Amino acid sequence: MTAENNAASAEQEAATKSIWLRGFIAPIAIGIVTIIIGANGRPFPALAFLAVAGTLLVAFHLIHITKLYRWASGALDRAVPRGVGPWEPALYALHRRLRVRPGQQHDLSSALADLRNASEALPDGMVILDADHRVEWSNRQATAHLGVRVPDDSGRPVVNLVRQPQFAVFLAAGELADRLQMASARDPGVVLSLQIIPYAGGRKLLISRDITRFERAETMRRDFIANVSHELRTPLTVLIGYLEMLRGQTLDAAASKSAVESMNTQAQAMQRLVEDLLTLSALESPQNPLREEPITTAPLLERVRA
What we know:
Blueprint: H1 2-39, H2 43-73, H3 87-121, E1 125-129, E2 135-138, H4 140-146, H5 165-173, E3 180-183, E4 191-198, E5 204-210, H6 212-248, H7 253-284, H8 297-305
Antiparallel strand pairs: 1-2, 1-5, 3-4, 4-5
Helix pairs in contact: 1-2, 1-3, 6-7
């Protein structure tokens, strides 16, 4: 890259020297001829020549300026005009730059298209907001989550599209706000997690993520803990009741045997529950990867039924 920069700098320096050299040739030649004519005792012809030659030189530059203006104000596909004298290297450099620009524009367009395709493939919704919370751009998933559709909704305030009070409060808090969890207005069964990320120019990136399955898993976890607590509480209550009864009074043999059998039954129920919890923990452990193997279903169904 350094060698290319050095070569470009050397080429630019040579072109600059050529422009200065070509630019001074005509004025110097006019000056020399004027001096020669005036040295022969003919001042008026010398002044007339200087005036005519100067006018022609100015006309020469005006012609090139006119060509350049017509090209700049004309159709975009018009070729850069050719130049003569000092205008030749300048207009050639302009022609070369314009010849390279389409390739650069194509590369930039390709990069933007790749970025857009990548954003469309994301599972999260993305909405770009300006400093006034107006929609500038969104991906396809934002339409599914929030109902924001570009270009139809471009320039519209996002609060007019997501009409939920908690969202308006969340948006007003800006970067000070934590993540917001709310139900999707398009599908109440979908739970969304929203986040705002400020970036350059006062813009904000609104990210929406579908966390429905995580919320369902959390609900199942809470229900599971509640059920386990209930299943443990029942046998513990029985055990504590019998222990208090045995501690407080003397029972005959039959009553003692009945109490011991009942406590043993409840203790076994608690033991099975603890074993089930340990089995579940082992199944979820990364040290026990899932293994698939054929089994005989009849004995398994008999065990389940029993």
